[in-house]
Amino acid sequence: MAQKIVVDPITRIEGHLRIEARLDGGRIAEAWSSSTAFRGIETILKGRDPRDAHHFTQRFCGVCTTVHSMASIRAVEDALKIQIPDNARLIRNLIMGIQNVQDHVIHFYHLHALDWVDIVSALKADPARTAQIAQSISDWPNSSPEYFQQVRDRIAAFAGTGRLGPFQNAYWGHAAYKLPPEVNLIGVAHYLEALEWQKDVIRIHAILGSKNPHPQTFLVGGMAIPVDPDSQNALNADKLALIRKLLRKARTFVEQVYIPDLLAVAPAYLDWAGIGGGVGNYLSYGDFPMDNSPGTGSLFFPRGVILGKDLANVQPMDEKKISEYVTHSWYSYSKGDNAGLHPYDGETSHRYTGPKPPYEFLDTDGKYSWVKSPRYLDQPMEVGPLARVLVAYAKGVPEVKAAVDFVLGKLGAPASALFSTLGRTAARGVDCLVLAQKNEQWLDELANNMGRGIFETFNKEKWDPATWPREAQGFGYHEAPRGALGHWIRIENGQIANYQAVVPSTWNAGPRDPKGQPGPYEAALVGTPIADPQKPLEILRTIHSFDPCLACAVHVLDGTGSEVVRVRAL
Amino acid sequence: MSLDPVSNPAAIPEEVLARAEARGINRRDFIRFCTMTTAALALPVTMVGRVAAAVADTRVPVIWVEYQSCSGDSEALLRANQPTAGEIILDLISLEYSEVVMAAAGHQAEEAKRQAAEKYRGKYLLVVEGSVPTGADGAYCTIGGHSAVEDCRKLVNGAFATICVGSCSSFGGIPAAAPNPTGAISVMEAVPGAPIVNLPGCPVNAENLTATIVHVLTFGKLPATDSLGRPKFAYGKRIHDNCERRGHFDAGQYAQTFGDVGHRQGHCLYQLGCKGPETFHNCPTIRYNEGASWPVMAGHGCIGCSEPGFWDTMSPFYRRLPKVPGFGIEDTADKIGIGLAAATAMAFGLHGVASCFRKGDAMEEDKVVREE
């Protein structure tokens, strides 16, 4: 018998997301993804100074902070044909790199882990046995029986107060939790350790960007942080040393905690390598320029499109082939709501036609979300670490290939296992590991530049609006932690004439298009088994594997980004 | 007596320490936390014992809701250092609801919120992140099918007090920037007259949030605020007056362009658009991310993010403020806010008022500044 269930709010994400699903025979037959909040920042941007845009767009999201600033300044630099100095490229790479690393670890432990790790079961763990397992999977020093005893006691004292706070009312004891108590205890211990670790390593953003969340030194034409080894008010040797120390701390944790934990948890859930695949199309804009040459040829993560899971045939990405639809979104288009608009010509005219709150169900035959439906060649595309890693893997990027083969080898799984909920979660680990190991190279290059007397971080040639053409347009890309992020800007008479952002969660969370093709979340949920409709833990697993970020997605902007160097509009 | 905070300078009674320890809180950490928090609240060291007694054996119930937000303030909480996020969540408060952190989802999450609001009625602290949209009958933000307006009114009215974190819940923030497409308002506007304290900033500085919570626990009331509802202990001074670059301002040494010698040498950022002279916040003294930095220290001007309407009144962000006279550090926002605005208006007859309608005149004003 068919049954409709609603999960609203989806927690442990950024923003307001609602999933409605129709069950049939214990499985999801159809799903609808809805974002239930709208702010209208694209509308707010019109008429403002393009150099200010990155401050506004950064507020699309406070979780994937930095990314919308990155895409924004790249869009303006593309429009005005500004070449940034090499130091700015490197500082941006470092900011983006540590953002991806820190964000992925937070996602794994604080947003996603509780879908797989049962905290209540951890109370039953034997500390000695836990230590044995921990020591067998990693050299991480916090692994003694005394340590795990201490963690267990702390959690027991907390639970003993009878007030579970953020851990109350969850799905503990659900049949879909498969880990032994000892592995659950390791998960809990590292949940707490990661909480400490993330605030330390992200101090790199404070050093380079003034603060986190919402660093403030992004600048059209470069970065607002000065470089000068002979000044105490600029990036100098002292600060480079602190950044290096934090980068090593970041890398050590990823290598010795995150990846071993991922590999320890995954074997209990290998059935999830066959669940949650979704649309099978993947898009990556590529990122992390390895030199300051024009174009996108030097991107460490290459640009590309994979259609129908065909890894043998990665296609070039052409942003002209992107269009956005609003057939099922609460917007209207001047050309009619079944039209597709390229972002340069994008419109954000909001028109709510849903039920008046409070409501029980949305009208999923009509409009049902604040997220638009972006399509590439009219196909829904999945973006994110999985897409980024697949494109790099298929193109043979050595670091990515090695990391993917290592993880697949450990799990004894074929490459096709990547097209799944588990694959998405594993690919995020690969992405994190590769970047954690790459970051120091950019710091070395920055130190080399400084040693050679190269201090420039800002190209001021086009700072004055008097130097701008009357009309210009640009595309700013970024591979944010959550995937392909694009900002499109049109500048007229020194002001923003139109601004559209198509963010990772717009791609992933969008509703159906005029042809009725579901978006990636919606497609990934179909076929998922639901053991208990009252406790749809399985929905959380697949949705969280995408790392949703809804504030950005609505409208529509989204983002998670990371950055670097300018790109020519294609 | 040593000043080392772990030596227990205020002689927290053994019995209080034991109560904390029984909850699994490390004794050294507890003493450190109480001492640092007392200092953050600008209280004398003799108050440490009172702070300790207030937080030793109860976790105050906290409901943390998000409306039109970016979750930047929730993330800021995760970056807290004195105490850390783990200590706050496990030891200081009982976080009954937080969409970013909580394990439960869907109707179980909403049920946890409803139960906490009922069980701790009149006793819980409500933390609000994000503005409240009033347009389209509340459809611009719904949670579990209920509008933010409805949820907010209900929760604010049942709370002991409400703490607005970040500029959106405090003043409307970015969703309320012109032309305010969704009719976004602050919590103060959504529920007039309720006991509310505002901790604006984009995002909130987590140390200010912790200090506010401990203040409430220790004294049973909200801290003293300015006329905008901001606690004086954190928003009582202008950034300009505590700025590490103030000496350069007074000496007339300015960075003229990003990356020039003045910029590299830490000169004043006033000419690059710094809004420190119009902004009240304790960024220069407590900074962010364990004291690592703050915008002016890193080399970018302040954008005035703790002031109401800053997205409209402080932008364009790279345009320098009109003449900034040398106010003394004893001035507060209440005393000089009007004076500064008046001086500004006289100097330009444009800024402040005109910037509310800034569409189209940004370039025009740039010209004015250049000609000046």
Percent of residues of chain A in beta strands?
Answer: 5-15%
- List the helices and strands of chain B in order: HHHEHHEHEEEEHEHEHEHHHHHHHHHH
The oligomeric state of the chains shown is heterodimer
Overall pLDDT metric of chain B: 86
Largest sheet of chain B, if any? Answer: 5 strands, parallel
**Unreliable segments of 5+ consecutive residues of chain A:** 555-570
Number of distinct helices of chain B = 19
CATH fold-type name of the largest domain in chain B? Rossmann fold
Q: Kindly name the structural category of chain A.
A: alpha+beta
Going across the major beta sheet of chain A, what is the strand order?
1-2-3
In round numbers, the mean pLDDT of chain A is 94
Beta strand count of chain A: 16
Radius of gyration of chain B, in Å, reads 22 Å
Number of domains of chain B: 3
| Low-confidence parts of chain B | 1-5, 327-331, 336-372
Radius of gyration of chain A: 23 Å
**Estimated structural class of chain B:** alpha/beta
CATH architecture label of the largest domain in chain B: 3-Layer(aba) Sandwich
Q: Portion of residues in helices of chain B?
A: 40-55%
- What's the helical proportion of residues of chain A? 25-40%
